[in-house]
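We give the entry.
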Amino acid sequence: MAMTDFKLDQMIAGHEVELAIREHGRCESSLPSLVLLHGAGRTLEDWAFVSTHLQEDFHLLSVDLRNHGLAGDAPWSWPAVVADIQQLVIQTGLGAHAVIGHSLGGMIASLYAAQTSNCLAAINLDGHGIGQPEDYAGIPLDTARTRLQQMTNLSSSMAPAPDQCFSPTDIAQIESQLREDSVYAEDWTLRAFRRGLQPMANGGARLRPVHQRYVELQKALAGLRLAEVYKQTKCPLLIVQTLGSAKEREEISQLAMTAWMPWFEEMQEAYRQGLARRLRQLSQDHPLIRFEQLHCGHGATLEAPELIAGLIRDFIDAQIGFRPEQAHQDVPPNSRPASG
């Protein structure tokens, strides 16, 4: 008997660390499973809104990555994180599955696709990092290199202090402010915030990832060359670039002023153009890779969940050759070809 509309939160063994997962949607062997990965400093709650549009058609597993949410704490490295997902697939007994990630999660999905041939598909939703100097269209290489170093330094300076800890009073004040400012449902907003905290013995809490793990993550990001990863793709991979929202452009403008980087907006636009040119060429050269652009901001899983769910459904549809709901009917699948 098929189990539908269920939700189960549990801990499961990853690679040398426990992962927190939320299993929901349709539990049927005839349906593919979607493994959903969040971005840096976020949790599986980021997939809550998208999941509501997918849970009738797929078996879903949202994941807290190591050092995030309720998952265990362990050194960060790309091989270890990919091994976490591989182990999760084994532990949960997944058959046909796709790995879909947002931001940092999208990079991990891309790495998984480059190392795992038995994956139905993978989607990288706007996980591009800051790229390389040559990715900044129209910006001289030396200039781009200097500016990128400044951007990296700024990111490093945002690491939580080793001794950072919010007191119970601090947490109450933050939650009060979230109630006033959030554009999302209050219960989700508070649940997402609390899931990203690591409780302390004194009753306070620290943001995750903590200082050491944040530094490890930043170092790993600086050394990642996604262009090389994409060339090794072993399963269909959709790479998505968001084109920004009005809210996002306003935030970038404010950051440019407060961080004393008057050129920041110019760099963002140059990267958007250069990245699109590179990924478009890549999709033409590699038969397993497809590239799409979306008119929304980077926070698309929260801001445009229905759009993202439709994108996911269409891409998975193309790989299995029939719409997921047809698995419930006594009709043969059609021969719709995969998009490339």
Strands lie at 3-13, 18-27, 33-37, 59-64, 97-102, 121-125, 197-199, 205-207, 237-242, 289-294. Residues 322-340 have pLDDT under 50 and may be disordered.
